[in-house]
Write the structure tokens for this entry.
Amino acid sequence: MKKDIFGTALLDYQNGNYTEDIKTYSSLEEEDVMPLPYLFRDFDAMPLLEQKALSLCKGTILDIGCGAGSHGLYLQNKGYTITCLDQSPGAITVCKNRGLVHTHLGSLLNFEGASFDTLLLLMNGIGICKSLSGLNVFLNKLKSLLKPGGQIILDSSDIIYMYETDEDGGYWIPENVSYYGEVQFQMEYKQQKSEPFNWLYLDFNTLQRAAVCNNLSCELVSEGEHYDYLARLSIKK
């Protein structure tokens, strides 16, 4: 059975058993930390890009990769009908415990039977696409879940800055990497490690090209302070 490292940590925090944070290991850096309190933040503690994203939401909403449900909870409290989707059983349990009415446990690609005015993918939610080669299938799945006039709101980062540069200003990209935004991660919590998993970061130009190829318009809404950006996609009329 697959370990739900992320969900276990969220449940511990929700149940008052917070003693440590999630450690992450990636193919780009040795170790980082994902602070659990940050995953339960309220609107005022969210980055400006996330606040902007939430202000753009309209109609019925699907929060893809909802985690602890902080974005969904804010939108639900604003009167929106929002469905929170995540593959982590622990995350979905936390969302329910926090009062979110509509939740769904499972993967995006297997999600069926509903359409929405807004699809929300925050905290680099497009990362669940895993690789650039899977982007066309991913975008077409998103399109299939949109109501007429619907929108996809997402944030991501151009992580080229994480690679070393040479004397001419070029970047050293390993030969075994097909696109520099493809990263492998592993999570550790209370001495338990997850299986390694792939995650995708997209620079805006690559996202825009893929959107155009899939009959989607792609608007750069705003840029953050550290190579991150917020984008809005919609089906071309």
